Amino acid sequence: SQQGEEDPQALSIQEGENATMNCSYKTSINNLQWYRQNSGRGLVHLILIRSNEREKHSGRLRVTLDTSKKSSSLLITASRAADTASYFCATGLNNDMRFGAGTRLTVKP
Amino acid sequence: NAGVMQNPRHLVRRRGQEARLRCSPMKGHSHVYWYRQLPEEGLKFMVYLQKENIIDESGMPKERFSAEFPKEGPSILRIQQVVRGDSAAYFCASSPNRQANTEAFFGQGTRLTVV
Predict the structure, then answer these.
(1) Which residues of B touch A65 (CB under 8 A)?
(2) pLDDT tens digits, one per residue of A42-96
(3) Could you give the CA distance from residue B100 to residue A92 in angstroms, rounded to a whole number?
(4) Would you say the C-alpha torsion B95, A71, A23, B88 has a positive or negative sign?
(5) CB contact under 8 A, A95 and B44
(6) Which residues are bridge partners to B86 per DSSP?
(7) What is the enclosing helix (H) or strand (E) of A82?
(8) Which among B33, B97, B109 has CB closest to A97?
(9) B43-67 burial: b if 16+ Cβ within 10 Å, else e
(10) Which phi and psi angles does A83 have, rounded to 5°?
């Protein structure tokens, strides 16, 4: 299965700290995407990284991709209480996306 | 340009009834994905459709579940004879094509409760 698996399952940090979430997958991919889901809401796309890219930034987000290890990480710097959400990675091959179970991030004020 | 629209947002069905979930993709998008999310769990892929075609239904239960994406109108996920275990949030996403580096856009989901 090319489904991504996030780790840890849950993460609790203080406001201002950095949060790192990891995603591992099993098969070849064209791209990997990170999504956020606030409780009871739909998914919001955060960032897409292509298989030939190693690192990508967007605001306070930094994503890395290591295709040799079949893993990716999402780093949120200077976290805020509003970052509290579930974060999912989705692995894509030919526009066919599969999601992991997500990391539940809690940022305490 | 409206986003992906799902309706209804909430659906309550009694055991044995049918549930119909609708997904209108973004304008110009011809690819639709359906996902199911059980409480406190991640998204599970169900089915991937292109207009009038099912591309991949490997994540959809063989019994009672069906999906379609007609030439005109929204994509429909149909669950017949619902059971309590079908209670979940069902999300659809759409994308414009099958290119590798394309973002998918998600709807707000339909929350199905089977009583």
Answers:
(1) none
(2) 778 899 898 999 999 999 999 999 999 999 999 999 999 999 998 988 886 655 6
(3) 7
(4) positive
(5) no
(6) none
(7) none
(8) B33
(9) bbbbbbbeeeeebebebbeeeebeb
(10) -80, -10
**Each residue's pLDDT tens digit, B33-73:** 899 988 767 778 899 899 889 988 888 999 999 999 999 99
Round to whole Å and give the CA distance between A51 and A30: 5
Do the Cβ atoms of A33 and B103 come within 8 Å?
yes
Q: Cα–Cα distance between A77 and A57 in angstroms, integer?
A: 11
Count of C-beta atoms within a 10 Å radius of residue B110: 22
Asked if residue A37 lies in contact with residue A10, where contact means CB atoms within 8 angstroms, the answer is no
Decide if B43 and A43 are in contact by the 8 Å CB cutoff.
yes
- B44 contacts A30? CB cut-off 8 A: no
Q: Which residue from B55, B91, B100 is facing A43, i.e. has the nearest CB?
A: B91
